[in-house]
Predict the structure.
Amino acid sequence: MIAILEALEQASDLAELQALSERMRDYFGVDHLVYHWVSGTGEQYGCGTYDPAWVARYLEKDYLRIDPVVQSCYQRFHPVDWKQLNWSGKPVRDFQRDAMDHGVGNQGFTVPVRGPSGQFAIFTVSHSCDDCTWHAFIENNRRELILAAHYFNQKALEFEPDRAPDAAMHLSPREVDAMTFLAMGYSRAQVADTLSISEHTLRVYIESARHKLGAANTTHAVARSLQQGLIIV
Amino acid sequence: MIRYLYADELHRHERLARSMFRDRASQFAERLKWPVKVDLHGEERDQYDLLNPLYVIWERPDGLHGGSMRFLPTTGRTMTGEHFLHLTDGVHIQSPLIWECTRFCLSDEAGPRIAAALMQAGSELMRGHGIEHFLGVFDAPMERVYRAIGASPDVLGSAGRGRARTSVGLWAYTPEAKAKLIARSGISQELMRLWYVRSFGRAESAKSAVA
């Protein structure tokens, strides 16, 4: 995952995002991975691994109107397993059959992302397998799938036309302190002690810094802070 | 019973929703004297209610509001990020694994059992959606309620004195905390799970739920 994130960090256009969606699909070992976003100004972009014939068909049939995934994720912020959605009613069942005929798969998991100033996105993985296998996959990968959705989204936010250049990455002095002490090899207990905060609070500060840095874990977050000159050791 | 409702679903539960906003007015404006806006109908709403938050509401047997709290993802706009940075050491806490919980409100008649049920519903949200922490804004009287039900948060910072003290705190999901809440609320895990499934749908297949 870290190699993919490093490539994502460097990506500067949609073609690269497309290639990364394919790499990430292979990393998760699923049939498909799709990322679709609507910018603060209402422009839509997407990348992913669905058969282009399905994408064309989806647009032609205007499936957006009945797709239960879109219907249930729009304006929401909790991730959903497709089995949680309402697939009843003939138009929806026909849509589902059509999707499966185009290789989308019978299983799916979608993470809605709500960014700043009206930006909105959905990130989906889909697959063909039985319920038990899928349930186990989600239990084991839920956290990383949620994070993956946000890695893509942070990159997408960089593509927003009127974005302030330094808006995305701003660590507060406290986060900088925490990252610095970790980079110096302090244990979490020592960092918490030095900053006079509980380890619990420290965990949240580190998690928040990890998110802002688009890092996979604490070590990666420390490495990124160093690379980007946000901390000096 | 517990209902999980996004703001855009409240119109289907109008009586419940109106009584929630009225109870919020009586808690935050009348009892705590917070400088909040109350409309002509005696209902309290703020700008964050317009961002389609998720409400967790205790509905009483008579269909009215017993208690509630409001959730927003910390990746978008939040009250802590926009108004309480001085209570989080200046750290703008943002993560898809952390949700903000604000406007924890209890109706006049609600006791610690309902507070415990709400917190238990919160832990169900964490389990179901892969959330690791809640970041909350609360006042001094609520701090006592949290202590009484064994769900005290880790306080990041406080400002003000006495009843007017406002704090920002963190809750993490732990099995011990959940067991305490179940004992306090008197609501079984199974029943809480049923209410959750009623709102969000069932992801587990029958087989894997047994395994």
Notes: Chain A touches chain B through 44 residues (CB under 8 Å).
